[in-house]
Specification:
The protein is built from 3 helices and 4 strands. By secondary structure, the protein is α+β, with helices and mostly antiparallel strands. The protein has a single domain, classed as Ribosomal Protein S5, domain 2, CATH 3.30.230. A 4-stranded mixed beta sheet has the order 1-2-4-3, sandwiched between helices. The radius of gyration is 13 Å and the shape is globular. The chain starts with 10 loop residues before the first helix and ends with a helix.
């Protein structure tokens, strides 16, 4: 679980990042990011009902949170990052999700 200071909360913040941020598409995730005003990066994870029922959505969110938690220190700068799980992420293995996360972050230029 991410500490509260590392989480994005509130619909207005999400909408702001969607509207004014940049977007990178991966195979299993879509990453929206925007320069943040804090001293560290903050994250939000979104899963829609297209992925599956509540059990499946929560499993995908737990996996993505674990990936973010383990690799937060590898992200340079202060960004607000929203990770949206795509419809096929429920069938992906943890290793594939992690590889896709790294590819998207590298493509966005957020890795150190």
């Amino acid at each position: 679980m991410l500490n509260k200071e590392f989480r994005i909360s509130g619909g207005k913040e999400y909408n702001n990042i969607y509207q004014y941020g940049k977007r990178i598409q991966g195979r299993y995730i879509i990453v929206f990011f925007q320069k943040g005003g804090t001293k560290f990066s903050r994250f939000g994870i979104v899963t829609s009902k297209k992925i599956g029922n509540a059990v499946v959505r929560n499993r995908v969110k737990r996996r993505l949170r674990a990936i973010v938690h383990d690799n937060m220190d590898k992200i340079c700068g202060c960004y607000n990052i929203v990770i949206v799980a795509r419809y096929n992420s429920s069938n992906a293995a943890y290793e594939n999700l992690e590889q896709d996360f790294f590819k998207a972050m590298k493509k966005a230029g957020l890795l150190c």
